[in-house]
Amino acid sequence: MKSILEYETVALLDEEDAVQIIDQTKLPGRTELIKLKTAQQIWDAIYLLQVRGAPAIGVCAAMGIYILTKKVKIENDTPENHDVNFAVLEQEFEKQKVYLDSSRPTAVNLSWALKRMEKVFFDCKGQKEMTMAQVKERLRGEAEEIRREDIDVCRRIGEYGLALVKPGDGILTHCNAGKLAAIRYGTATAPVYLGAERGYDFHVYADETRPLLQGARLTAYELQAAGIDVTLQCDNMSASLMREGRIQAVFVGCDRVAANGDTANKIGTSMVAIAAKRYSVPFYVCAPTATIDMSIPGGDQIVIEQRKPEEVTGMWYAQRMASEGVKVYNPAFDVTDNDLIAGIVTEFGVARAPYTESLREIFRKKEERSGERAYNL
Ligand code: MRU
Q: Is 256 in a helix, a strand, or coil?
């Protein structure tokens, strides 16, 4: 049987005008691939967490906006008609961009990827030698580039993360910031995957991650499939593991990092960080620069997604387990204060407190390398 690691989390099926994803709500029981062709299907897949995890959402949205723009029929696609035809594409592009961007509010990768696509799109505007077929081709190229970059970025995060731990360490993670949340390696799992290739024999502890169980259903599943020593435990058990001395480092992913290092990640993350501080376990956030939002000064400005009460009261249970009509609080993310974070592991190195300075330095390195102004500054 094909391993879950052999499937693409998000893939572009250009000939079929579709974005293909693994329906993550069905894992680990069933591996179902779904083809997203309409704006509604893409929006729903992101909102319903069929595709989830900050980097994967970004890639899906980039491929989605390409497919939706590609489907716009253009009559007389010649360079002479550039302006009038571009206006037709522009109308659709902008409408779908706003729509897709509204599917989830916290993971900045979604708007980051759409802004990248928008920049490439508008760079074509007024280039009178370009046909709309060529404009669409540029969009395809950028979407593929965002996907390709994710692999490279996660691998580099893995290298920096791996230098923070040693063979045999116990590593705790919360939610799924693994391959299923990205394209390959994941972010928080990248040091684990690279370590496994080099014989580091880590013991990984995966928090189940209430209420949607991304840790139980996804992290434990993908690490087990990779042959990594993984143990699943309930969210309320991590402090006790730390007290027993079984955890040497925590690696988590993130959905948005503010300029001062405050970090939004899956609900429950801040509890882990507080326990880690108590037991002197270093707590690391693995963050591609695409997830760092320097326009937001601190965690208070991060919009936290609120989700349906049914996810808490009944989802994943054979029968509803909470009383009818009970009030429910169900934020999807929480903010971990920067003083609980030992380091933010990016593809350009590990940022340490004070983060306002070290994150700026990370972006300076990024700009030096690309020669371009970073989008999220
Ligand atoms: O609601 P989800 O499953 O999309 O939440 C995902 C997380 O919180 C991840 O930790 C985060 O997106 C980082 S993924 C590399």
A: strand
